[in-house]
From TrEMBL, chain A:
The chain crosses the membrane at residues 21-49, 61-85, 97-115, 146-170, 191-210. The keyword Transmembrane helix applies. This is Cytochrome c oxidase subunit III. It comes from Tianweitania populi. InterPro entries: Cyt_c/ubiquinol_Oxase_su3, Cyt_c_oxidase-like_su3, Cyt_c_oxidase_su3-like_sf, Cyt_c_oxidase_su3_a-hlx. It is found in: Cell membrane; Membrane. Gene3D superfamilies: Cytochrome c oxidase, subunit III, four-helix bundle. Residues 1-211 form the Heme-copper oxidase subunit III family profile domain. The lineage of its organism: Bacteria, Pseudomonadati, Pseudomonadota, Alphaproteobacteria, Hyphomicrobiales. GO terms for cellular component: plasma membrane. It holds the Pfam family COX3.
UniProtKB/TrEMBL annotation, chain B:
This is Caa(3)-type oxidase subunit IV. It comes from the Bacteria. It comes from Tianweitania populi. GO terms for cellular component: plasma membrane. It is found in: Cell membrane. Keywords: Cell membrane, Membrane, Transmembrane, Transmembrane helix. It is a multi-pass membrane protein. The chain crosses the membrane at residues 34-54, 61-83. Signal peptide: none annotated. InterPro entries: Caa3_sub_IV (IPR011743), Cyt_c_oxidase_su4_prok (IPR005171).
Amino acid sequence: MTRSGLVEEPFSDPEQQRRAALFGMTIFLATEILLFGGIFAALIFYQAAHREIFVETSRELHIWIATGNTVVLLTSSLFAALAVAAAKAGNGKATGWLLGVTAALGLAFLGLKGWEYALEYGEGLLPLAGGDAKLGEPGKRLFMDLYLMATGLHAVHVTIGVCLLLFIAARIATRATRMPEQATTIEVSTLYWHLIDVIWVFLFPALYLVR
Amino acid sequence: MRSELRPLALVYLGLLALLALTVAGSFLPLGHASPAVSFGIAMAKALLIVWFFMGFRREGWAVRLAVLAGLVWLTILLSLTLLDLLTRNWLMPHFGT
């Protein structure tokens, strides 16, 4: 056994325990794929049904903020992957810092997204009270409804991810979680983070690049 | 850890290149091919993230199958939803007109 860790009941060795943890997480991720899948189904369906107005509305979105946000999330995923490498190498300090940077990039993503919402609210494009002056046309309102729902649900996931990563980074800092014995904790939580990134990778063309 | 840095950084650069490609592609007059191009590139990005960043290239099939099962159900969800829209006028040409 290379990783002499804390083996809980009913597992007989660390690797078996690790695989069970990863398996459980990936099953959860499959349910997340389906949660967002419903929104994607609606987006694709209505995009096919109301192509012209969807293209027109998509062009009014802030594509450069969204592109910047994609870079931020892709970078955060790189740091999350490096955190796993550091955790497996037994470097607790580096793991904590790398998770901290990942979480900070998540916060930067939320900041940019918030700024984008504020701009859209001012432009009368956000389907919220007081911010929907330009959403008279039903097709346009439908697209922005889907946009707000999809990005809002995604932002909730980013928020949960940031809290999770900061929590683990704090536990590493106080030595409540130790590397490499508990590297699986990092693997499992960064899997969640990467999925948030993958969902954004699909939301980006589905919302911003409708042409 | 150092041995991991190089492949992960290369994957990261690949992801940024694909992002540049998809944004540039959205400004080209691709017409009806445009959604196929942008979703194809998104698929390539997702595969890079799953295979390298999530470490699926080193995992066993139990973990891969869990995600594949999610994708199978997603395919059912999307295809049955779209089947209605795509075949509506095909089976009943004057439906809804």
